[in-house]
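Sequence and structure are kept together here, with a separate record for every protein. A complete record is shown below as an example:
=====
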Amino acid sequence: MATRTDVGADADGYPAPSRGPLPTKDVGRLLLRCADRPGLVAAVSGFLAAAGANIVSLDQHATEPSGGTFMQRTIFHLPGLPAARDALERDFAEQVASRFDMDFRLSEAAKPKRVAIMASKEDHCLLDLLWRNRRGELDMTVSMVISNHADLADQVRPFGVPFIHVPATKETRAEAERRQLELLRGNVDLVVLARYMQVLTPDFLVNVGAPLINIHHSFLPAFIGAAPYRRAKERGVKLVGATAHYVTEELDDGPIIEQDVVRVDHRHTVEDLTRLGADVERVVLSRAVLWHCQDRIIRYGNQTVVF
């Protein structure tokens, strides 16, 4: 089954444009995934009702009409949630999640995600995230910017975010990742790679303790390597795009969160393609980060469901 009861979603079942910030005090978000079977919605709703919570919105999706995987995002209001959260999470695990073998995550809407941004020399994605965050468009707190180059320090300083230069090359990768892990582990809920131009090792991904979101141009894998826009121009591409995805050990092969494209033609120069590509990258990355921070995303295999 695939049902939606959510005033904040469009008729296509895709996140609708925001109508302004919703109150967050005492608002919880419950995301879950399990094997589909009858009674799941009733069990979750009944538990929340018994706890004194009022369901504000409920989105759900099953991968098959029968026998598939069930996913659900529930937004609820519960007076005194901060004090009751731990007990609520424990009771849900014992009374519902264990019964249906659910993976679930419970969060408070009033607690912004702690986010670290990693960058290199290109500034467009980094500065866009900082600007949107300062305007209140992203529900997060930027804890730090880590860069393997010092070039962007002066541009980050006006945003009041710590800029930490950790030199990293292929030869010094182990020492750089050790220092980065000291900064990140236990201190952030999300790491955003805003055109960070170093490959992260499997050991780093295992030990960082937070999901990572990456952005890249959508020419992959056709134009892997240096100068992708020049090579794309030489092939006469008709679309320039970008992809935001979660980072896994398989390079650029993690679950896709968001993608977008813009049409181009023979009149566009390499510089035009680069500029248009940067525009798309900014928008796609900011959407992916926003949706993650709003607890809209459930990972399913190497895919995502975005409510």
In short: The first helix runs from residue 40 to 50. The chain has two domains: 4-108, 113-306.
